[in-house]
TrEMBL record:
<dbReference type="InterPro" id="IPR006311">
    <property type="entry name" value="TAT_signal"/>
</dbReference>
<feature type="region of interest" description="Disordered">
    <location>
        <begin position="1"/>
        <end position="21"/>
    </location>
</feature>
<dbReference type="InterPro" id="IPR024651">
    <property type="entry name" value="FAD-SLDH_ssu"/>
</dbReference>
<dbReference type="Pfam" id="PF12318">
    <property type="entry name" value="FAD-SLDH"/>
</dbReference>
<protein>
    <recommendedName>
        <fullName>Twin-arginine translocation pathway signal</fullName>
    </recommendedName>
</protein>
Amino acid sequence: MNNDTNPYARRSGDAAEPMGGGLTRRQWLQRSLALTALGLAGSLTLRALAESPSAAPLDAFMTLSEALTGKSGLNRAVGERLLRALQKGSFELGDGLPKLAGALAANTLTPDQEALSLRILEAWYLGVVDNVVITYEEALMFGVVSDTLVIRSYCPNKPGFWADKPTERQA
């Protein structure tokens, strides 16, 4: 069957196949996220953080996290747990946070700084660091669908409720 007429046939550029410039979708998405983070680089708070390397690590992490995610008022307790988990991992966060803030503000990320910013984003959105679940219900990925879906932990209704049309929740 010709791929032009088969709607289920794989098209070039799917999942693992490189896109036009030799990038996979995942690489393209990661770079797009990094560029989005760079778009937030003009933030005065990032510049202030870069100029005060003596800032408390948690404060620096929360400032960077809010700039990277584009969300204000992130849960500080979750941030503290994520920071501790990231510090145990393969990335050295000590004085790297003010340097990362400076690079974001100046729009000059190195590959290592880009990787670190992606790790911070991954930690917040998935709630997982180095294959260890740090938070489940507070992971930012659930915010996107919170108006319709219930975070799965316990059954939210009677048996067989999933067969009924979902009711929209007010966020």
